Amino acid sequence: MKHIFLLEDDETLGRGIAMALTGSETSVVCRSNLTQARETLAEEHFDLLILDVNLPDGSGLDLLRQVRSEGSSTPVILLTANDLELDEVTGLEAGADDYITKPFSLAVLRARVNAQLRRSACTAPCALSVGPFTFDFDRMDFRRDGVAVELSKTEQRLLRVLVENCGHAVPRATLVDRVWTDGAEFVEENALSVTVKRLRSKLEADPAKPDYLKTVYGIGYIWAVKP
Questions:
Q1: Interval 160-202: pLDDT, tens
Q2: Does the N-terminal or the C-terminal CB of the chain have fewer CB atoms within 10 Å?
Q3: Mean of the per-residue pLDDT values for the chain?
Q4: Which fold has domain 128-223?
């Protein structure tokens, strides 16, 4: 069963979308404002988020940025009445996976939803096993040899970017951009190095000689073992 979250302030449209997407293998939870949405997302796990951009108490983009800043890779489709290219670019750069302009066909929305659910099922396993580690980013459960390891939100985001790019060096600038996504205008120069050091101290048998989280001099860092 796939669990879909819908944020739409037009309750009539929201009911129509929910009816169109609800089926034997899908369920839909609908909310009409940001306050309700944040409360629901804090309590439940969803396989797909559909967010209206223009809301009475803010913007769906704000919620999207919050979701991504918390390290979630749950697929997100944005709904908006504004078809300006700038708005579309803003949404995609904020982390949206797809973008639909109102008015739209429910059949088209259903097809887009199914495409995102298929893609996430193929590319985003719930848990990754890497050497002695098991990383479950959705449940925020991280283990080495079966023993739980407590990671901060920043450490989780850094680990996720590295593991998703395992076997490939990730530049420092890319890591800073992906990990510190809270809109801060200034990030301490050594923030990345400090976070890497903390992460190694929690995951590596010998942090001074890491087997997994390695430095690629002149570039950045790499998770050296593929899952």
A1: 888 877 888 888 888 887 787 554 555 676 899 999 999 999 9
A2: N
A3: 85
A4: Arc Repressor Mutant, subunit A (1.10.10)
171 upstream amide cis, omega within 30 of 0:
no
CA 164 vs. chain centroid, Å, equals 12
pLDDT digits (tens, 9 = 90+) for 81-99: 765 555 677 888 888 999 8
Distance, in Å, from the CA atom of 108 to the CA atom of 182, rounded to the nearest integer, reads 33
Domain boundaries, the chain: 2-123, 128-223
Nearest to 69 by CA among 189, 183, 222, 199: 183
SS3 of residue 219 by DSSP: coil
CB atoms closer than 10 angstroms to residue 5: 21
Q: Which runs of E-coded beta strand occur in 109-175?
A: 128-130, 133-136, 141-144, 147-148, 170-171
Strands 2-7 and 147-148: unpaired
Whether pTM exceeds 0.90: no
Which residue type does 119 have?
R
One-letter amino acid for residue 161 of the chain: V
Neighbours of 76 (CB within 10 A): 24
Q: Which two tokens stand for residue 71?
A: 């390290």
Q: How far apart are CA 216 and CA 194, in angstroms?
A: 16
CA-closest candidate to residue 178, choices 201, 197, 159, 194: 159
Is the Cβ–Cβ distance between 52 and 80 less than 8 Å?
yes
